[in-house]
Specification:
This protein is mainly alpha-helical. It contains 6 helices and 6 strands; from the N terminus they run ββαααααββββα. The chain folds into 2 domains: 145 residues, no CATH class; 59 residues, no CATH class.
Length: 215
């Protein structure tokens, strides 16, 4: 029995990656070309802002995100994928792969070859853990660019919690008045401040702020 290089759990198969991490890595690899093409949709030029004059002769609008250009460019996503192809070929005693064509075609080609090597990678390659980790990070990063996580509205920032803990020190966690809530609640120590103590709460916060500034 060995330990999976990815999840660090015991693996009875004796390989470098457990069956679960092997399958997850394959799924992420298969998704990379699709995610790469998805970034291309986001490269549609941003609409210009009207200035009351014709736009003829002016500079073209910038893409939505220069980061997307970097990912899709020659030194972006394709480079680490081809580096893994080169590393696998070297360790398997195979000739170096020619890296030619468009960036999109090279991504497809690199992913296809890595998928073909997956049985050997999962069972025998000492670098399997690092490879699987980077593929996971790449897929997660691309998904985040395409569909950013929603911004959480924490409400209005009130200040630092003035409550004293058992050791006599100030809690100091940031207080927020969450949307729809009628009381300020400290997420760290759990103390609540209803509206009728807000005037006193402000006084305590101001006193603590002055004490910190003077320290």
């Amino acid at each position: 029995m060995t330990t999976c290089q990815m999840c660090e759990q015991h693996d009875e198969t004796g390989g470098q990656l457990c069956p679960g991490c092997t399958k997850a890595t394959r799924v992420r690899l298969e998704a990379l070309p699709v995610l790469y093409r998805g970034l291309g949709v986001l490269l549609a030029p941003a609409g210009g802002v009207g200035q009351g004059r014709s736009g003829k002769g002016g500079p073209p609008p910038l893409p939505v995100s220069l980061d997307i250009l970097d990912i899709r460019g020659p030194g972006g996503m394709v480079t680490p994928l081809e580096s893994w192809v080169d590393a696998v070929r070297q360790d398997r005693g195979r000739p170096e792969a020619p890296h030619t064509g468009s960036a999109e075609a090279r991504v497809e080609l690199a992913v296809g070859e890595l998928l073909g090597h997956m049985p050997w990678i999962a069972v025998s390659w000492p670098a399997a853990g690092d490879f699987a980790q980077e593929i996971r990070e790449m897929a997660t990063s691309l998904r985040t660019v395409i569909a950013p996580p929603p911004v959480i509205n924490r409400g209005r920032r009130v200040g630092h919690c003035p409550a004293l803990n058992t050791s006599g020190t100030v809690c100091g966690a940031v207080l927020w008045l969450a949307p729809g809530e009628k009381a300020v609640r400290c997420e760290w120590c759990g103390l609540q401040y209803p509206p009728y103590v807000w005037a006193q709460l402000k006084t305590w916060i101001d006193e603590d702020t002055k004490a910190r500034d003077a320290a």
